[in-house]
Design brief:
With 51 residues, the chain is an all-beta fold. It contains no helices and 4 strands.
Length: 51
Amino acid sequence: MPPGWSLLANPATAQWVHADDEGSEVVLQGASGQTAMFTRTAPGYYQAPPA
């Protein structure tokens, strides 16, 4: 995880393997290459992608 980030998950079952903090959004990448984008809404707060 990047500095300042924490993960509340069991590392043995976590699906995400990489995180890119791009300032206004964070992009998570899974082991199979899938991605999910979380948009920053306020300092420390991010909106999850639509389900």
